[in-house]
Structures are given as structure tokens and as C-alpha cells.
Amino acid sequence: MKAIRFLFWFWLVIGLALMLFYKVPEPLGFSNGLFLVFFALYALALEQKASGGVNKQLYLRALLVGAFTFVLEWVGTETGWPFGRYEYSETLRFWDGGVPLAIAFAWIGVMSSGVLLSRASNRITRAIQVGLFALAFDLVLDPVAFAQQFWIWSEEGAFGTYYGVPLQNFAAWFVTAALLSLFYPLQEGGVAEPGSVYGEAVRLYQGMHAMFGLLAFKEGLWGPFLLAIIIIVALEGGLRIDRSKQKQNVRPSVSRL
Predict the structure, then answer these.
(1) CA distances from 162 to 55, 159, 174 (A)
(2) What confidence tens digit (pLDDT) does each residue in 236-252 have?
(3) What is the DSSP code (8-state) at residue 100?
(4) Could you write out the DSSP letters of every residue in 195-232?
(5) Phi, psi of 148 (to 5 degrees)
(6) Which residues pair with 162 in a beta bridge?
(7) Where do the H-state alpha helices sit in 29-100?
(8) Segment (H or E) for 3
(9) For residue 178, what are the contacts with CB-CB under 8 A and spacing of at least 6?
(10) What's the CA gap between 6 and 42, in Å, rounded?
(11) Residue 251 burial (CB count, 10 A)
(12) pTM over the 0.85 mark
């Protein structure tokens, strides 16, 4: 857990600094895709911790999510459904051609972090929450990825665009994440205290938004930049309110003793 936490944050800080102030050197081009692998592994490590230890079903589910979304992305690049017409550049690839394997890892990270952030007590409400977490993430990510040419949109789509990205793409992200969440077991209500899985999942989600928010700022994408700030602040406010409530609940219990 400590190793993957360190790798993720180290990769994020170094990679972000390079992309903001210089560029990722060509020999290190593989590092863009590798970052998404670390994102998935970190989110999975948190999910495993939340489940109480090694869980074979957790990794089998991650494998199925990765395989399903990889195929869905391949269908998207071939047919334009459900996300719209687009193609991947070489930026995220470990080898030439096809959908980058890193995209499957990105979806695993999105799903695991979204499930950990949800506080819902039933699957339907959680599906909506996870879909919204995925949607919020993509509203910041996709315009930046398009501007940085991680992938290239070739058509506007039937319903218009958001910073050059077809609106149907965002609907597809919401629906895909919401449906996939139904295969995850319900988690107990997250504990907001420092060091908790829920608190660390919040930091992970905030970190991803901070990175893409700053890249949005560099590209002059003010909508995604402001949205990233709003999401980070909203999650921080919710976390602090939860911690305050927990402290208030603990004090009466202690006084009775």
C-alpha cells in the first residue's frame, strides 16, 4: 500500500511539473500510460483495504471491468458509439496501434475511486452517485486530453460539444459507470477521520482533479479549470463537516464514561 501510494503521488507531481513547465521527454513517453496504471493500482489498494484484506473477487471484478471497458473503447473508436467518433494518439500507448491498454486501467481507477466515495446505502442511489463522480471527472479530463492530443475527436456529435468533446461522450461515461457500479458490493458508510480509506479516496480524487485542473489552466480551458476547483473544494468541505460531526458524536460518548 505504501509503495503504490508513493509511486502514484511521485509520478503525479513529477509528471505534472514536466507538463506544466516543459514537456514529457520523448524517451519517457511511456510514463503517461504508466501513470494511469498507478492510478488503478492505488484505487484498488484502497478498495482492498476497505474490504478488510486480500479479496480475489475484487481483482477478478477489476479484470472484468478493464476488459469490458477496453472492448467498449475499441467499439467506440471503430463505430463512434457510444462515446462519439475519436481516435487515440500515441501518447498513452505502450506499443503501436489500437486502444491503449492504459485506458482499461483508467476505467478501473475511476470505478474503484467512485465506489469508495459513494456513501449510498442502496445500489440504485450508489449507481447514480458513481455515475456522477465519473461524469465530473470526465468533464475536467476530456477537454484537457483533447487539447493535449491524448485522443482526437473527429466529429461534433448530434447533440453539440463541450470544449470540442461531443456531449454524448459524457452521457456514455455516466451510464457506463452507473451500470458497472451494480457489480460492486455495497460499502459501509465512509469514515472521514484522518487516515481512513474514505479520506484517502477523497485525496486521490482531489489529486486527479488538481492535476487535470492545472493542465486545463495551462491550456486556457477556464470551464474545466473552475469545475476542478469547485469539485476539490466541495469534497474538502464535505470531508471537514463529516469529521466535525464525528468529533461531536464522540464527545457525548466519552462524557458518559
Answers:
(1) 40, 10, 15
(2) 999 988 888 777 765 55
(3) -
(4) T-HHHHHHHHHHHHHHHHHHHHHHHT-HHHHHHHHHHH
(5) -90, 0
(6) 165
(7) 30-51, 56-79
(8) helix 2-21
(9) 127, 128, 130, 131, 134
(10) 9
(11) 10
(12) yes
